[in-house]
Amino acid sequence: MVCGISLPLPPKKLIGNMDREFIAERQRGLQTYLDSITQHPLLCSSLPVKKFLDPNNYCANYTEIALQQVSMFFRSDLKWEVLEPLRDIGWRIRKKYFLIKNKEQPKERYLLSWVDLGPDKFLSDKDLQSAMKLLTSLSTPYLCPLLFSSTSESSALLIRPFSERGSLRDHICKVKPRESYLKKYCNPKKSQGLELSQIKLYGRQILEGLKLLHDGGMFYGHLHASNVIVDDGVCRLIDVENGMLGVPSVLRPSFTQLRKINTTESIDIFCFGHLLYEMTYGRPPDSIPVDQYPTVPYTAVVSVLQSILSTEACKSGMPTVSQLIQTPLFSDVHLQHSEKLQIKVPSRLKEALKTAKESLEKRLQEEQRVLHQHRRLTRAQSHHGSEEERKRRKILARKKSRQSAYENEEDVSVRNNNNSGSGASSPPTCPSSPTPPSTAGAQTAPLPPPPPPPPPMLDSSSCPPPPLSSSDGAGGGRAALLSSIQSFSKGKLKKAETTDRSKPVI
């Protein structure tokens, strides 16, 4: 493969490839294959992967669009001539490179780049042209000169000197600058960290370049090893215009997850820590934040890395450029250009840059807020669906069910006791037709003996009037009635004398 990385592609099968078990196994293998690709920062940003995962948004032929724009430019300016297209030397999909020359200086080589404007472009077209004009007029030792720039509503065309030695990353990986970036950087075989003296010198020069931009009110956000050119022992930043063109940073997926990195200055410091790690160990960090560092004899470097890339630093905030310059690692570095450097920005453009900077930071903070809420929701759903949480919910449900059943039993018992002792408030039934007791009452008290039959002289259809409710409130009337019925005796009745008048009178 071009990238030089062995990927876990699952094996194929000619016979029996429709078996259910084989299909399930191959699906799991393909998912592992996709996961390994998307977790690699360079592979996941390549055009073939983007086209496979999102074909609708990556269907345009950007090489053809770039050629059309470049051809229109050369028709308007005849002194430039294209030598060759530099295919895939950069990771951006919507950015193309060409090696050109000036007909007036045929031995010199220049780099022409065409780039599509990004979503963070908040400058108006007029202010963007003024900013690009300012960059072409700059002449400072720590910024790579921009020779020509032309902007339109949707793209920009830039010309700068071409460095045959390549970028700082080419120097670290020991590769040629014109090769494909996947071949150069995915799995370099000869990458090696820099010496301590080079780390100190290059780091201090890069910090001076950042300080120059920050003091002038300009924002960068695109510092990495491929955007640093080493020329005669001096590091120069390139693609300084990327922040104003609104293109996303290569490290945006990393610092979007860190809510304390929410300003353009803190983004530059975070990118510097990433670059310092690569200069020290010969490769970028595998993940952010970094709390464990490989063995290295440069303790001063590790202390600076911890102040930027550690978990505590990512939660508390980034140091400033001035604070990093005052650290023991960079404070004693002697610079060739000791004079004070500054960028004179017109007041109107400075206000426009300030407004654009605030809009960029606001968009970043909103994206961080949405991502933070999504991560909290995902963690809550994952915790809610875990086996331990399901067991805990089952135990709570059982306890609640038992408590509810116990409370219901208590309510029924209290209600039955009240019914058995408060019957005086309801009218009693006739003795001739007693009401059978309820089932619940039968469980709590034995049935009373049945009353004796009524005397024959009484009319069974007539019932005595209901007695008045007693004042004791404990069912005394009902108890007295039952007692009088049980103690009824025929012998206590008075003998009545009757006269038989049924005989006929003659």
Structural summary, described in words:
- The protein is built from 17 helices and 7 strands.
- With about 500 residues, it is an alpha+beta fold.
- About 25% of the residues are buried.
- It has a 5-stranded antiparallel sheet, with helices on both faces.
- The protein folds into 2 domains: about 1-40, no CATH class; about 55-380, Transferase(Phosphotransferase) domain 1 (Transferase(Phosphotransferase), domain 1), CATH 1.10.510.10.
- A hairpin with a 2-residue loop joins strand 6 (about 230) and strand 7 (about 235).
- Helix 7 packs antiparallel against helix 10 and helix 10 packs antiparallel against helix 11.
- It has helices spanning about 20-40, 45-55, 60-75, 125-135, 170-175, 180-185, 195-215, 240-245, 250-255, 265-280, 300-310, 310-315, 320-325, 345-385, 385-420, 440-445, 475-485; strands spanning about 80-85, 95-100, 105-115, 150, 155-160, 230, 235.
